[in-house]
Design a protein that fits this description.
This protein is an all-alpha fold. Helix content is about 85%, strand content about 0%. One of its GO terms (biological process) is phosphoenolpyruvate-dependent sugar phosphotransferase system.
């Protein structure tokens, strides 16, 4: 496995972990454990930052070395799909948790 493939796998892994933590946070809402949900969302954000840093390294490499530095492969497309899905999931789940927490405080 070359360095580019290792970075891609790191992006997939960090993105998947981010998404998993976000969905775990949503599960905590069922038992009204908002503190745990917020902690899991923070962990999700931390993993998202890790994924973002990998992506940024790859972009910098491409800018410095040209488009051949990071060839577009099905694996890279898959990694980007994971990353974008994780971000969207976390953003939506964060909003849902805020809505449920507000509802529980008012009710």
């Amino acid at each position: 496995m070359d360095e580019s493939e290792k970075q891609i796998m790191g992006l997939i892994s960090a993105s998947g972990e981010s998404r998993s933590k976000a969905f775990e946070a949503l599960q905590k809402v069922r038992s009204h454990d908002y503190d745990a949900a917020k902690q899991l969302l923070q962990e999700s954000k931390d993993m998202d930052v890790a994924a973002h840093n990998i992506q940024t390294q790859m972009i910098r490499k491409e800018l410095n070395e040209g488009s051949d530095a990071n060839p577009i492969t099905l694996l890279m497309v898959h990694a980007q799909d994971h990353y974008m899905t994780a971000q969207l999931s976390r953003d939506l789940i964060e909003e849902l948790i805020e809505i449920f927490q507000k509802r529980d405080k008012e009710g």
